[in-house]
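Hi! If you just cloned this repository, the fastest way to understand the data is to look at a raw example. We've pasted two of them here, unedited. The first protein comes first, obviously.
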Amino acid sequence: MPISTIPPLNRCLEAQIQAKIDGKTKPPGALGQLETLAKQVALVQGSLNPQLTNPHLIVFAGDHGVAREGVSPYPQEITAQMVLNFVRGGAAINVFCRQNGIQLKVVDAGVNADFDPNLPIIHQKVAKGTANFLHEAAMSALQCQEALEAGAELLRKIHTATQCNVIGFGEMGIGNTSSASMLMSEICGLSLEKCVGRGTGHDDDGLQRKLNVLQAAQEKQQLSAQAADALQVLKTFGGFEIAQMCGAMQEAAALGMLVLVDGFIASAAFLVAQAMQPNLMDYAVFCHRSAEQGHRLLLEYLQAQPLLDLGLRLGEGTAAALAYPLLQNALAFLGEMAEFGDLG
């Protein structure tokens, strides 16, 4: 089933929402980004009294063929080990989701391992990792479409089963900062030097090696003339976890859900998704500014104002889980704070 079209926001209530915010017992604008956030959620839901229902967070996991070129200081086997850590509840994202009452789902989008089918993960592996984009496209056109549609279908199932209206996205995949850097460079038209960072902890030599590999891949694939074709860029340099996240983000917005965007990898997936459907931007909350080098420039390109800046660079959706209480507080002030009219 194809991904649904994201409608533009219905702004008929915008003046009333703003009047409600301005009527609270505070100076206009005194709650800063919380006011902007409350207004956005109200517009997405088309309600003067918006509510957050059954928050979910999905971690998509996948491996990358380019990891064989030494673009990460960690071996590819870490991806599968971290999936098992998610299942056991021992990762940072497990802790933060438990703390904030968020339902966590873990998806095998393309991990280079065989998991027990009885494990509590969602099994929608496209293949055991992408191809090495230093030598060929990361995925075929058919695989790319399969991944996009798998992400979208998962969102439909979650929405139907739970009526969830707010969802965050995270990822796990050794080598995926390389993939994200390539997507960013191609779509934003920025040099790789501006997009490539240390990822999971490269030293200076490792960072240079990573940059050299990615520059060679960019020269090999020569997509500059097709930079506006986000689907082609995704097929050539993306990961299965990134592609499934991309489809899921689009479908979530099409269903009227609020989309919580995590760090560098999730923002790169969003970049592709938004290039395909520009209305996605209205539904997105950018949760933090990552310490990964390219993320600041990526947020600037998207003209996005993140909620947090804590020096995080873990991924997994951790910042989305940490930012969720800010959404709760934004709606709490909108719904519960007294208005000047109440004071007579």
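Ok, and the second one:
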Amino acid sequence: MKRDFLGFSQLDAAKIIELFDFSLFIKKQRRETASAAAYKPLAGKTVAMIFNKPSLRTRVSFEIGIHELGGYAVNLEGKSIGVNSREAVEDIAQLLSRYNNAVVARLHEHSIIESLAEHASIPVINALTDLSHPCQILADAFTLYEKGLWHDRVKVVFVGDGNNVANSWIELAGKLPFHFVLACPEMQEFQPDPSILEEAGKNSASVIEIMHDPVTAAKDADVLYTDVWTSMGQEAETDKRLDIFKPYQINRQLLESAKPGAVVMHCMPAHRGQEITADVMDGPQSIVLDEAENRLHVQKALLVKLLNHEEYRKFHLTHRLRNVASKLTR
């Protein structure tokens, strides 16, 4: 059966934790040179990567990850192939399915990635759309899991715009229990997607709150999280947004409203002095570079899950057997 990753809809809490455990294994493998050289579960496989938007972390982490797993990445600029203009989405999907083993796409319209997945016979991975950014949130949640900070009462406070990154945090909250708070301006244009919010609320897995006072929202936070105030495609609104979002900056004062030892996260790129101050971004409570690095490890784990599920299952079976053996010998 073909598996896609467009968001968290097809995962449950157990499957997400399984993916995190495999990501820990993948990360450990990379540090052990001999193991990394021998571990090539994507040998002979190719992945087409479509980029309609500028990219640094997403492009580098996917390309390096595919290479390290033994596969080959084909980079396609969205403008050059003319997604949904020069060529119909369904034609692109079917053609790439004949050449490749998966498609990674970073696009504007979410409907296009849905159409790609509908018409492709190979896995399609959402590497960002205007609606969501699930690979980023996988890496963020994994980073907290890796550091022993993840539990069903961890309070993650997103300060800023109810954008695609916030939407994916909310989608995750519909699957994996935790306390999520979005602190954003009251205007409707800065609220998260209502359908994602409604669907996450139906599952009742987490406490999900929308607030408008960042100081109140930050109280007792374990994690303060932010993103740029002006996303790609919104450049004409920059001055307006800078004025509206001034109270939503993560700075030393706001960090003092959170729990002592709270960590600070940012999906990057960051504009120091706007959504976050440099002293906080580069300070001892920041784990921004850790989450950026973990994009590589989580996406490698995701690629193996989608393209070599037998290898993925074998790891978890071995993992479970080792746990049982460990309990029996205590």
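That's it. A detail worth noticing about the second one: Residues 35 and 97 are 31 Å apart (CA to CA).
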